[in-house]
Write a structure and sequence with these properties.
The longest helix has 11 residues, at 103-113. 23% of the residues lie in helices and 19% in strands. The protein is globular and about 45 Å long. It has 6 helices and 9 strands; from the N terminus they run E-E-H-E-H-H-E-H-E-H-E-E-E-H-E.
């Protein structure tokens, strides 16, 4: 079952501490339209939602027993923007850059699924390394000061044994927009490992 899969623990990958300003906010990354963007310039009035994603992981695109989080992306963007946050997808699968996660494959996936947010290429997994991103997907919610206020999974829908739905990310976005305390600031990311090139 997909619900039993999770990220592999890599001791080299250090996750960012909550409350701290994230690194590389001016790091330029290429979009599918050939333009370059950095996180700082993409922020909304309340901050930015960063989602590390890809084109093939069943946690993203779905499988027989899980619909995949990608189906929520456009809705999440609308929800984030209604609450003052912008959203960006980042593809850090450098080891698959000549195949499933090539710019051409990214363009095809974005067009097929009607992505309404930028989808950026993280060359050499540099941003993923700086953020300590482990999985696809792995979300990072940043406030307008580019400080980390929530990280982990979008929700708990991958857990077939859950007794109730927990919308961690939406709850965090809504709480921040209403100047309330974010009750759950961190959850374990669930997904396929980011395919880094071994150095």
């Amino acid at each position: 079952l997909i619900s039993t899969l999770s990220f592999s623990q890599d001791p080299e990958i250090k996750t960012l501490p909550l409350g701290e300003r994230v690194p590389m906010i001016q790091h330029q990354m290429e979009s599918l339209d050939g333009k370059t963007y950095n996180l700082e310039s993409m922020s909304g009035e309340n901050g930015l939602l960063v989602v590390f994603s890809c084109n093939t992981c069943p946690f993203v695109i779905g499988s027989d027993n899980f619909e995949g989080w990608e189906k929520q992306y456009n809705d999440l963007k609308k929800f984030a923007e209604a609450n003052g946050f912008k959203m960006v997808l980042i593809n850090s699968n450098e080891a698959k850059r000549d195949s499933d996660d090539s710019p051409e494959a990214m363009k095809k996936r974005a067009a097929e699924k009607g992505y309404s947010m930028p989808y950026l290429i993280d060359k050499n997994s540099e941003l993923a390394d700086a953020f300590g991103a482990r999985t696809t997907p792995h979300v990072y919610l940043l406030n307008k000061q580019m400080e980390l206020i929530y990280t982990g999974a979008i929700d708990n829908k991958v857990d077939g044994k859950r007794t109730s739905d927990e919308n961690y990310l939406k709850d965090a976005i809504e709480a921040k927009a209403n100047n309330k305390e974010i009750k759950t600031t961190s959850t374990p990311p669930r997904g396929c490992s980011i395919k880094r090139v071994k150095k």
